[in-house]
């Protein structure tokens, strides 16, 4: 089912990606920690999502951004277009690969939490955010519907370059990545294939009108886009999201070829920036996770924990 050149396919597999046609699934660090009885990711602390029951996937590796802070191996990724498979078939393949990748934990009972392993066999959540821009998959609306029809929640993360798609999809939670407080910084940080700033501004309005729970996420890098909280606030006010996540850039993966290690803000710097936004927006600082260097602001329009 794979749709990638052999050299690309082999490189992705070495990095832990399990390919399904034009999509992929990959177990994250937090799934591995959780299934071994350890701590869980910030989505658990913020929203109640169990990391060992979370499927991290993407329907396409295509992306129209080349973000400086992105740690995914996208720089020379040709992706795959056309010849799309149907959402049900794609999701079947993704879930099959998820089961295959967790099956090995059963052979290590001394380090595996047996109760969590059993729970992991029944995924409860799909994070459509692994790599690439998922709204470039032409049946993303139907994929989200398929996920939800199987009793799972769906978080969709988008870069906001497809506003018409944003107006149609209804995930459990809709994330919009907010990389910059202004157009000039956006072009530098997101490094888009074309100037898509006007599309992004339109997407802010689509997020405001979405029936889903909504989040704007800021990934901040020191000496790059960790500037002008007033500018960010003006954009956030257009979207009126339920939540704002303020997260530090982490010096990992391919981003190390573009940014220096000292681009990583400390958790205290993230909290200071979040407090500035909180004061401007009137959002409450609801939670923060030092290990992930992330803070959550809440407008008070939705409860934080999701009932699964």
Please tell me the total number of domains: 1
CATH-defined fold name: TIM Barrel
| pLDDT < 50 runs, ≥5 residues | none
Biggest sheet record: 10 strands, mixed
Which term fits the overall shape?
globular
CATH superfamily: Aldolase class I
Give a brief description.
The protein has 308 residues and is α/β, with parallel strands linked by helices. The chain is built from eleven helices and ten strands.
Your description of this structure?
This protein is α/β, with parallel strands linked by helices and about 300 residues long. Helices cover about 35% and strands about 15% of the residues. The protein contains eleven helices and ten strands. It has helices spanning about 5-15, 30-35, 40-45, 85-100, 115-120, 140-150, 165, 185-190, 195-210, 230-240, 265-280, and strands spanning about 20, 25, 55-60, 125-130, 155-160, 175, 215-220, 245-250, 285-290, 295-300. A ten-stranded mixed sheet has the order 1-2-3-4-5-6-7-8-10-9, sandwiched between helices. Helix 6 links the parallel strand 4 and strand 5. Helix 4 packs across helix 6 (about 140-150). The two termini are about 30 Å apart. The mean pLDDT is about 95.
